[in-house]
TrEMBL record:
Biological processes annotated in GO: proteasome-mediated ubiquitin-dependent protein catabolic process; protein deubiquitination; regulation of proteasomal protein catabolic process
Catalytic activity: Thiol-dependent hydrolysis of ester, thioester, amide, peptide and isopeptide bonds formed by the C-terminal Gly of ubiquitin (a 76-residue protein attached to proteins as an intracellular targeting signal)
Keywords: Hydrolase, Protease, Thiol protease, Ubl conjugation pathway
Lineage, opening ranks: Eukaryota, Metazoa, Spiralia, Gnathifera, Rotifera
Name of this protein: ubiquitinyl hydrolase 1
Organism: Adineta steineri
GO MF annotation: an example: cysteine-type deubiquitinase activity
């Protein structure tokens, strides 16, 4: 699994670099998701890779005064900020700026979950990612 994760991450970085250089990038068409748990243990994380899914912050000088805000990942690229009855879309950069200090938001709780890895499934691979092509007999 770790080999597939490395290949998927490297391919994604290569596409991002090419985009920054103004090159034409062909996005993969046959994306498959690697399983995040072992077949016999639904709550496990078979890759050991996690992603941040939510942050609970406090804005104020003390826990007895101030305000709590929740920041929740909506999908791979979008986050939502829940501030009482107001729900606002925010960027991942906004969430990463939650460094705390003074009257700014201080993270109280971080919630992580298994990271979903997408990879391009080749024509000769099945759902498990294993090659379905057997070695060719070249003896005569």
């Amino acid at each position: 699994i770790r080999e597939k994760i490395k290949k998927a991450e490297d391919a994604k970085l290569d596409r991002e670099r090419a985009k920054k250089l103004g090159e034409t990038v062909v996005e993969p068409k046959n994306l498959s998701k690697l399983p995040t748990s072992f077949p016999d243990d639904a709550g496990s994380n078979n890759s050991g890779f996690y992603q941040l899914n939510a942050v609970l912050t406090h804005k104020g000088r003390s826990s007895s005064s101030g305000h709590y805000v929740a920041w929740v990942r909506r999908n791979q690229t979008e986050w939502l900020m829940f501030d009482d009855e107001n729900v606002t879309p925010v960027t991942e950069e906004d969430v990463l700026k939650l460094s705390g200090g003074g009257d700014w938001h201080t993270a109280y709780l971080l919630i992580y979950g298994p990271r979903t890895i997408e990879y391009e499934e080749k024509a000769d691979e099945g759902a498990s990612g294993e090659s379905n092509v057997s070695a060719m007999d070249t003896t005569t």
